[in-house]
Amino acid sequence: MNEDRIKGKWKQLTGKIKSRWGDLTDDDLKEAEGDREYLAGKIQERYGIAKDEAKKQVEEFERGL
Fold first, then answer.
1. How far apart are CA 45 and CA 47, in angstroms?
2. End-to-end CA distance of the chain
3. Whole domain around residue 57: which residue ranges?
4. What is the residue-level pLDDT of the chain in tens, covering all 65 positions?
5. Residue 43, class by beta-carbon neighbours within 10 Å (0-12 exposed, 13-18 middle, 19+ buried)?
6. Cα–Cα distances in Å, from 51 out to 5, 8, 24, 34?
7. Hey, what's the torsion of the CAs at 52, 19, 37, 47, to 10 degrees?
């Protein structure tokens, strides 16, 4: 799914994102608004994982949509 489609469907995707990464806050998701880099950064921060791993998880999530 490309970034424009993700941004367009962001509100619908937030539930799936919260299911996958439950430690993300509503504020995190509101700030992200479809921005993959921001989302990966927040996943890195909340879960204490490497940035590359966070990006990989976001990419895998997107492929599953």
1. 6
2. 7
3. 3-63
4. 667 777 778 888 999 999 999 999 999 999 999 899 999 999 999 999 999 999 999 999 989 88
5. buried
6. 23, 25, 16, 17
7. -50
| CATH number of the domain where residue 42 is located | 1.10.1470.10
Residue 2 DSSP symbol? -
Report how far apart, in Å, the C-alpha atoms of 50 and of each of 6, 15, 46 are: 23, 24, 11
| Structural domains of the chain, count | 1
- Are the C-beta atoms of residues 55 and 38 closer than 8 Å to each other? no
Determine contact, residues 40/55, Cβ cutoff 8 Å.
yes
